[in-house]
Amino acid sequence: MIPGCHSVEKISDTHFRADVTIGVGPVKGRYRAEVTLSDLDAPRAVTLGGSAVGVLGFGNGEGRITLTPEHAGTSVRYEYDAAIGGKVASIGGRLLDGAARIIIGQFFAGLARQAGGASAEARPSLTNRFSSLFGRRS
After folding, report:
1. How far apart are CA 105 and CA 121, in angstroms?
2. Which pTM does this prediction carry?
3. Cα–Cα distance, 104 to 131 (Å, whole number)
4. Which domain holds residue 68?
5. Looking at the 3D structure of the chain, how many domains does it have?
6. How many CB atoms lie within 10 A of CB 68?
7. How far is it, in rounded angstroms, from Cα 111 to Cα 8?
8. Does 28 map to a domain?
9. Of 116, 40, 48, 107, nearest to 124 (Cα)?
10. What is the CATH number of the domain that holds 36?
């Protein structure tokens, strides 16, 4: 369900460790990721915080996911703030906003399929702030 994910280890009910491969344009690498869940408002909302470290660089971020019942299903809204550094920022920094949208879209499409949703085309509302630790735009 998670694009590029090789394994996920549950550390606790709110802490997970994963081994993922992420590629952005010409930059592709394997990363060790840590994800924590907080501000739980089941089943309406959750905040995901995380970090990833690999040979090409590092990143960290936080996102809030909110689910709202609608006529024929559920509306998914998310906001995120992320920062990256290292070689991945200097080489692929300009491509990251678009890549983040694609990866997030793939995640929600997989989640919809797992949940038995009629459509695998998730169209969540997006508010983002993506920045590089090298001073790229926000």
Report:
1. 8
2. 0.70
3. 17
4. 5-132
5. 1
6. 11
7. 16
8. yes
9. 107
10. 3.30.530.20
